[in-house]
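P.,

For your records, the input lines for the assembly:
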Amino acid sequence: KTRTIAIVNQKGGVGKTTTSINLAAALAAQGQSVLLIDLDPQGNATTGLGQRKGRRHGATDITLYDVIVDEAGLAAAVVDTDVAGLTLVASDMDMSGAELAIGNSPGRTTRLKSALSDYLASLQDPPDYVLIDCPPALGLLTVNALSAARSVLVPLQCEFYALEGLSQLLKTIEVAKASVNPDLVIDGVMLTMYDRRNRLSDQVAADVRKHLGRAVLETIIPRNVRIAEAPSFGKPVTQYDPKCKGALPYMALAKELLLRHGKN
Amino acid sequence: KTRTIAIVNQKGGVGKTTTSINLAAALAAQGQSVLLIDLDPQGNATTGLGQRKGRRHGATDITLYDVIVDEAGLAAAVVDTDVAGLTLVASDMDMSGAELAIGNSPGRTTRLKSALSDYLASLQDPPDYVLIDCPPALGLLTVNALSAARSVLVPLQCEFYALEGLSQLLKTIEVAKASVNPDLVIDGVMLTMYDRRNRLSDQVAADVRKHLGRAVLETIIPRNVRIAEAPSFGKPVTQYDPKCKGALPYMALAKELLLRHGKN
Ligand SMILES: Nc1ncnc2c1ncn2[C@@H]1O[C@H](COP(=O)(O)OP(=O)(O)OP(=O)(O)O)[C@@H](O)[C@H]1O
Ligand SMILES: Nc1ncnc2c1ncn2[C@@H]1O[C@H](COP(=O)(O)OP(=O)(O)OP(=O)(O)O)[C@@H](O)[C@H]1O
Ligand SMILES: [Mg+2]
Ligand SMILES: [Mg+2]
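Structure tokens returned:
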């Protein structure tokens, strides 16, 4: 029942966190139950939903760091959010040390995968979707997400440097498929921060569609200031300003993915 | 004589590469000799200057990977660019494996520092400036840059998430100062992608100035489409469109830093 999607791009600032939060909220608004995992040590998805990052106050306070490094159960790290139907595994300031801590251990690429499958198996009513927000790198945390996921969503900023990194990213996904996760597929490449006043946006969009065809999702997310404002209020844009030009495309993106997954 | 500046921010997409290239070109236009080191495995600074990323064609082709991992000399990896007075150490596709390769070796945090000081000592006429473009992370590559540098320049995008990561970054710089480089200072925080039509830009700018005062540089870089277009032509914006609203602020930034460094 549960479909797990990793939101990945090693290029920085291309809208991974923004897409994780707003797609999760848009899916929840359309009746899906969603768990969002904040795998980025920066913890932007956690703050963008108005939640506190995991602190290691006492032994009982299980955080994502404990799950990845000490193989603690995931259930204790799941919290509710202000969005109905959306739960969260918060990031943890210590996560920046997680990659070095598991660097040479056995099973270092599948820690998240096993924790997540144990958690989902323990639930009467598992979520319809799990989304994983990734850091801007192709290191062990992102590899953990690629091995835990059923599919990958690639946000692509309509700018030159973002296009440049795409072929390296697609190669990495193929390597992950061959080595840790043969079932991994690409849900699509999603064009974002599209600015119709700017020729560069059109050039990038045309270039990507030429190379990747139907792998590019129909829905395009425009550059929209309300999207950038929403996280400072700890809300997804679908709650901050539901009818604005930034929120409606994320609702359309959710519909398009539900259709592609045969869940509508 | 040589001043080495690391351009650092773990938040992705905040203008590290754009600042590295355009500040380097603006300093060169004002008579300074500059070496730019592309320490980011994505290699955007290399492509943005129209150069090819290091390939490991044969044993003689020394790349930055060889310098960091195998402690090869830096001189063989330095190339000319189309900008007079600006030389480059290109990135290398293999760099994404560098951190794991040096993960537990002795001196892993000072590989770049020793290679750079050996190189500068071997030159009759060392450059006035060395700029180091860093990846969006606080891993071993960025720590190598913090230990090799005399000062740090922090590009800060005028957006909510970029502000959130600032305190973590400043803490990391303090840790680097205490552990690997006691002489390290902060040249400043540089506001970029400032959009005067957008209230959020003003809020972020006011917030940073309130907390950091004079550590915030006077020069503000506006959001400007010519800046985003220039890398697709392999040129800094100071060459692509020298009189535009994107190029002039980088010339002003170079002047401000020359003044702060007493080199004007
Ligand atoms: N469609 C959009 N319109 C306007 N601003 C946007 C849009 N999407 C994202 N942003 C803003 O752009 C910045 C970068 O987005 P975001 O932080 O989501 O990217 P990221 O890929 O998660 O970054 P990182 O690589 O650091 O994890 C943020 O300040 C965000 O608010
Ligand atoms: N002042 C500006 N105005 C308009 N666009 C800009 C400006 N500065 C940078 N950009 C664009 O924003 C994007 C992000 O900038 P850049 O790649 O330099 O950031 P970065 O911090 O180096 O990213 P990464 O974290 O991936 O290394 C690029 O597409 C760049 O062209
Ligand atoms: Mg993010
Ligand atoms: Mg960069």
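Two observations worth noting. Chain B has a mean pLDDT of 94. Strands of chain B lie at 3-7, 34-38, 78-80, 86-89, 129-133, 151-157, 185-192.

Regards
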